[in-house]
Amino acid sequence: MASPTDDNVAVQLNPVLKPLSWLLGTWESDEPGEGTFPTIKPFRYTEKLCFTHVGQPVINFTFKAFHAESNKPLHRECGFIRIQPGTNKVAFIIAQNSGLVEIEEGELTGNQLKLQSQSLGRISFAKEPHVQQIGRVLQLRPDGKLEQTVSMATDSQPLTQHLHITYSPSS
Question: Are 72 and 51 in contact (CB under 8 A)?
Fold first, then answer.
């Protein structure tokens, strides 16, 4: 199975990644997602996700969010997805434009990924309250849409749903 890579050159998908191949490609929200948290005003956003590979046993990704009304750039994430060969154990290695870096680990069950942060690091002047935990569920729905729910805990709030959005494949 060959697919486009970061350089738009067809490269064979590393067989280790076959269970995650449903993620590959570009996904765009067709309806604005919703962001909520007890310490902030609710907001709506759009987002574009891009999952690629270069033939290595790793998926490269970028997440780009925009304010739904003004289209102003918001959150950015980039990183890598790895799967432990022969298992359903998956890891996301993520850097965020907020100065947060994280490792999320979890399990792949069918077309659903459930992840929890295992390690968090941040720049010394990160905005408070500091994020202490992140949970993420990504799933390919039967209707072909990708759904993502992100939960977050901070110094002052327990783990609470923060983001929810659905995406369609981009043409």
Answer: no
Q: pLDDT by residue for the chain (171 residues), tens digit each?
A: 555 555 666 899 999 999 999 999 999 999 999 999 999 999 999 999 999 999 999 999 999 999 999 999 999 999 999 999 999 999 999 999 999 999 999 999 999 999 999 999 999 999 999 999 999 999 999 999 999 999 999 999 999 999 999 999 997
- Residue 155 burial by Cβ neighbours in a 10 Å radius (0-12, 13-18, 19+): exposed
Per DSSP, the three-state class of 99 is coil
DSSP state of 112: E
Whether the bond into 129 is cis, omega within 30 of 0: yes
> How many Å apart are CA 82 and CA 117, to the nearest integer?
14
Strands 89-96 and 73-83: antiparallel
Ramachandran angles phi, psi of 18, nearest 5°: -50, -40
84-88 contacts, C-beta under 8 A, 24 or more apart:
85/16, 85/57, 88/19
